[in-house]
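Structure (tokenized):
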């Protein structure tokens, strides 16, 4: 849904770039909730926020969750909770700039490491090299994939006494070996932006099962206020409270998130079936894992440029959605002066090649067929 000058542009696409539909019963729930909020006349951090936090923690199988205004602040507040000021924080170079922005906002120094080829988690060898100088490690579940190496990463962090934070912005509902995204590390940080697996418009959540850490986060999210006496501030906090309107939407979304993940998985499975045995690779979640497919990542055959693929799809009315990601952190001008002296060959190759065709619950299977037909016309085995 492209916007220009504040106006909704008519879409030229046969397959939408993005769509979000609401059933009548979902609208009714929101309308009733809106009345309740207006009756309460308490528009932030109140009834629906408390309810949403409880429900989101239950969904992630953690003891607690904290609702915040967006995913970037979820990471920032979690890292303020760890205490990273002036210290290094390791993260995969292939992530959205928000992960690095959040580290910097918490006072930390982002130190990118390369990624792993199969499921895009951070390179364990480079983490091991740098971990003793780091205050935290942030891993990212790319496109909803939980890299199986999370098990070793978690062990490594535990052994060295360095907190592991999950950037689970893409991974609501994903799990590996029956463990949910957001429950592996000290904290999981989610984005509930409009296009994500579930949404509160803008919004985010931090999950944790550590009671002390939870209490720290509660304070940090409200200006660092003492939980008993809000006029006293022991911590360097921020204003990261969620409004009641966002929380109401979040509660509605939680009621339908499993159904919507099921639909995402059907769309992804159709890409995977259609492209199986061809020169195209539709990336699948790992054995023992469950991926909610925020994105269906596709790799073209070697030598075929992404731009050529995009042009061919655009010609038949199909857009590519944002990649994950075309420009890794080590290639972002804003971070250039602070980079370690190392190469990132795996990320460079992945970021230059992959693309993400539309994959969300509203996409029809016939549309996936049309896209795959086009890809196979462009290159087949
Ligand atoms: C990997 C990753 N981390 C963090 C964020 C930040 O989330 P938000 O946009 O809600 O601030 C995003 C958002 O797209 C993301 O993709």
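Design, position by position:
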């Amino acid at each position: 849904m492209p916007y220009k000058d504040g106006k909704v542009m008519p879409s030229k696409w046969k397959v939408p770039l993005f769509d979000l539909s609401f059933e009548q019963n979902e609208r009714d729930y929101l309308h009733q909730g809106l009345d309740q909020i207006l009756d309460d006349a308490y528009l932030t951090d109140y009834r629906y926020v408390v309810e949403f936090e409880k429900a989101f923690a239950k969904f992630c199988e953690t003891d607690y969750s904290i609702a915040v205004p967006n995913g970037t602040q979820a990471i920032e507040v979690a890292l303020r909770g760890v205490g990273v000021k002036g210290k290094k924080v390791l993260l995969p170079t292939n992530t959205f700039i928000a992960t690095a922005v959040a580290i910097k906002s918490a006072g930390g120094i982002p130190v990118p490491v390369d990624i792993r080829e199969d499921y895009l988690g951070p390179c364990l060898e480079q983490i091991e090299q740098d971990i003793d100088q780091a205050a935290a490690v942030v891993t990212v579940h790319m496109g909803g994939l939980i890299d199986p190496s999370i098990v070793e990463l978690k062990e490594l962090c535990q052994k060295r006494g360095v907190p592991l934070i999950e950037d689970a912005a893409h991974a609501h509902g994903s799990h590996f070996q029956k463990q949910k995204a957001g429950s592996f590390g000290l904290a999981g940080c989610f984005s509930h932006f409009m296009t994500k697996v579930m949404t509160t418009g803008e919004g985010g959540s931090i999950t944790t099962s550590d009671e002390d850490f939870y209490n720290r986060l509660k304070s940090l999210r409200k200006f660092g206020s003492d939980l008993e006496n809000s006029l006293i501030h022991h911590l360097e906090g921020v204003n990261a409270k969620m409004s009641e309107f966002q929380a109401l939407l979040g509660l509605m979304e939680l009621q339908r998130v499993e159904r919507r993940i099921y639909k995402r998985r059907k769309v992804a499975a159709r890409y995977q079936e259609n492209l199986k045995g061809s020169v195209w690779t539709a990336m699948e979640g790992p054995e023992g894992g469950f991926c909610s497919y925020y994105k269906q990542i596709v790799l073209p055959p070697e030598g075929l440029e992404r731009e050529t693929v995009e042009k061919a799809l655009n010609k038949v009315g199909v857009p590519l959605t944002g990649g994950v990601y075309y420009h890794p952190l080590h290639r972002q001008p804003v971070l250039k002066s602070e980079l370690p002296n190392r190469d990132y060959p795996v990320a460079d190759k992945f970021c230059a090649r992959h693309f993400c065709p539309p994959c969300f619950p509203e996409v029809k299977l016939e549309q996936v067929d049309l896209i795959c037909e086009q890809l196979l016309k462009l290159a087949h085995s």
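Reviewer-requested clarification: Residues 70-72, 95-96, 98-99, 140, 167, 169-170, 191, 193, 204 surround pyridoxal-5'-phosphate (CB under 6 Å). The two ends are 35 Å apart (CA to CA).
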